[in-house]
Amino acid sequence: MSWIDKIKAGIGGKKTAKDEDLWAECKKCKEQIYIAELEINLKVCPHCDYHFRLETRQRIHQLIDQESFEEHDQNLTASDPLKFRDTKKYKDRIKSSAKKGLSSDAVITGSGTIEGLPIELCVFDFSFMGGSMGSVVGEKITRAIERAMENKSALIIASSSGGARMQEGIFSLMQMAKTSSALSKLSEQKIPYISILTDPTMGGVSASFSMLGDIILAEPGALIGFAGPRVIEQTIKQKLPDGFQTAEFLLDHGLIDNVVHRKDLKSTLAQLLKMLKNNPTEESEEPTLTKPPELLGA
Amino acid sequence: MVQILEFEREIFALETQIHDLVSMSHMYDSVGDITHEIAKLKKKLRRMKYEVYSNLKGWDKTLVARHPDRPYTLDYLNLIFEDFFELHGDRHGGYGPSIVAGLAKFDGRSVMVVGHQKGRETKEKIRRNFGMSQPAGYRKALRLMRMAEKFNIPVITFIDTPGAYPGVDAEEKGQSEAIATNMFSIIQLKIPIICVVIGEGGSGGALAIGIGDHIMMFEHSVYSVISPEGCASILWGDKGKTSQAADALCITANDLLKFKVIDEIIREPLGGAHRNHKQAAIRLKKSLRKNLDRLTQVPLGELTQLREKKFREMGKVIEEGT
Ligand SMILES: [Zn+2]
Questions:
Q1: CB nearest to B316's CB, from A79, A180, A253
Q2: Distance of residue A98 Cα from the nearest chain B Cα, in angstroms
Q3: A195 at the B interface (CB within 8 A)?
Q4: Residues 274-303 (B) with a CB less than 8 A from some CB of A
Q5: Per DSSP, which regions of chain B are E strands?
Q6: Burial level of A62, CB count in 10 A (0-12/13-18/19+)?
Q7: Which one, of A150, A100, A145, lies nearest residue A126 by Cα?
Q8: Are B175 and B135 in contact (CB under 8 A)?
Q9: Rounded-to-integer distance, Cα B182 and Cα A251, Å
């Protein structure tokens, strides 16, 4: 009997109001999970490995070396270029999202290190309007790419987004072009870009920078696709196959490089980044570094 | 069968009236001389068309842009290009019938034409998948644009799609990757690229062949991140709010020119391109000629730099206290 089961047995299955703050139900296996344990386990279900969505700051904390994160462009905010209003004003949606979250828009960007290697990191905040990409997201990502070129540091983007932000109309669509164009230059300069797809990565985000990584990794079970499952169902008027648009489905169809468990993500990134820069090119002016073998590989 | 749009009804009624008067005057002498009357009505018709068509809002334009009689890529290919030779396939097992592409002559010079193609008859509509491309279509487009670069042949793309196809097979074959890779690659092609939205500019499916040096839109075409129907159902929770959604999304050529997302509007013949293919084609030809002449003068290195800069500047943010 694990300690978690002991705690559960101790409570005897009866829950008080306070227990709701202590326990969470796994969306996949429906087991009750002690929240403290879930946190220690990087928000992965200890029973079935279901990956809960990770809060942005936690993701950053989990991916890079402690205290190495220096945030950039926090001062960029949405400008509402269309004066958009549906049942609510876009401006008010922004305000209420900004109030409840920690970010001023749907992505946090900054510099940091992974096992000492310099990187530019972009992490999506799904809680901010579904991680949707408007001008601020596009601009922050483009600047992160430009910073990667300037600093010759690798780029890592952890996506979690429903797609383009409709409230910015054509401007949101053009962020796809803007970010893809910037990545084209990054690629020319042979600076590595690793794209991490987390639940969910859809629409205009999936159809731009997310799918352009030199290496594309995904978390287990993450929903990834161009069109949303409901739209597809309505179009083809059929039920979708089980596991459709999951990370594993994409792996099976040759669309991503690998599915990586959250606990292995950081070490995998470090290993890949080291291998990608291991062999200097002929034009490289840097002296050849010979590393002791224990530093290579994870 | 001519499809009449809601706001065209009055125009059609008047047209029919004029038509009837004319045939009457030809048939019966007893009608007397009504030339003057007919001329008056014709003037009224012109004015009516002008008023109606210069005040179309987003949703009206969406209907015009989707009009089944509107000229498609193959129509323009017939009207203003010569010696079109279609090139097929993505070379990776895909055909891509929703996009047509091939070599053609324009003004005596070779060009590569790539464009979405919708169908008119039911069978053709299905074959073309209503202009909604599979990944293979975008990959074919990129393959041929790369070939154009190799042989120093300018590229002209025609955009007319509801969007990239949302289907199981499209997802399995990497719809997202195909669109992303096109933008990523086309931005660097060292060859002039002119893009023309001739009908519907539907989101990522449009952008996949929408990266270029000079972006034009026909006056009554639309270009949007999502269809008004899709937006209405997601944001309003009501499919009936298409008109509000179309207005809110700012999808007309005028909007996009104001936003500097496009560079030029091609005026349509009175009553829309679907009423006069030839006239629309002539105006398109004029714009294409002017811009091809201009762009082929720009050194290729400079051209791609300008193209990158163009897309780099897209978007509006507030930057506080730097
Ligand atoms: Zn579980």
A1: A79
A2: 14
A3: no
A4: none
A5: 82-86, 99-106, 109-116, 155-161, 193-202, 214-218, 222-224, 264-266, 317-319
A6: middle
A7: A100
A8: yes
A9: 21
Please state, as a whole number, how many other Cβ atoms lie within 10 Å of the Cβ of residue A23: 19
CB A229 within 8 A of CB A240: yes
Region B33-56 average pLDDT: 90
The model's pTM: 0.92
The reply to whether B209 touches chain A by the CB within 8 Å rule is: no
Contact across the interface for A204 and B225, Cβ inside 8 Å: yes
CB within 8 Å of A180: residues ≥ 6 apart = A208, A209, A212, B180, B183, B184, B187
CB contact under 8 A, A178 and B311: yes
Q: Which of A114-123, A182-191, B25-34, B263-272 has the lowest mean pLDDT?
A: B25-34
The answer to whether B191 contacts chain A (CB < 8 Å) is: no
pLDDT bucket at A5, cuts 50 / 70 / 90: low
Whether A15 has a pLDDT exceeding 60, the answer reads no
Phi, psi of A258 (to 5 degrees): -165, 160
- The helix or strand, by DSSP H or E, that contains position B230, with its residue range, turns out to be helix B228-231
Name the B residues in 153-172 with CB < 8 Å from any A CB: 164, 166-168, 170-172
CA atoms of A298 and A205, how far apart (whole Å): 30
Tell me how far CA of residue B251 lies from CA of B232, B248, B262, in angstroms: 14, 8, 11
pLDDT at residue B31, as a whole number: 66
Burial class (CB in 10 A: 0-12, 13-18, 19+), B48: middle
Instruction: Supply the DSSP symbol for A89.
Output: B
Is B110 within 8 Å of B148 (Cβ atoms)? no
| Residues B194-250 pLDDT 10s | 999 999 999 999 999 999 999 999 999 999 999 999 999 999 999 899 999 999 999
Amino acid at A262: R
Distance in angstroms (rounded) separating the CA atoms of residues B172 and A115: 35
Which pLDDT score is estimated for A1?
A: 44
pLDDT at residue A295 in the model? 56
Structure tokens, A111: 């510099």
Please report the ipTM that was assigned to this predicted complex: 0.95
CA of A47 to the centre of ligand 1 (A): 5
- Residues of chain A by 3-state class (helix, strand, coil), percent to 5: 40, 20, 40
Query: CA–CA separation, B119 vs B69, rounded Å?
Result: 10
User: Are B180 and A208 in contact (CB < 8 Å)?
Assistant: yes
- Best mutation site among B142, B146, B171 for testing chain A: the one with the most A CBs within 10 Å? B171
Q: Give dist(CA A41, CA B69) in Å, integer.
A: 60
Q: Could you list the beta-strand ranges (E) of B162-263.
A: 193-202, 214-218, 222-224
pLDDT in tens, A46-91: 999 999 999 999 999 999 999 999 999 999 999 999 999 999 999 9
Give the distance (Å) from ligand 1 centre to CA of residue A51: 8
Helices (H), B3-134: 9-27, 35-54, 58-65, 73-80, 122-127
* Residue pair B274/B64 in contact by the 8 Å Cβ criterion: yes
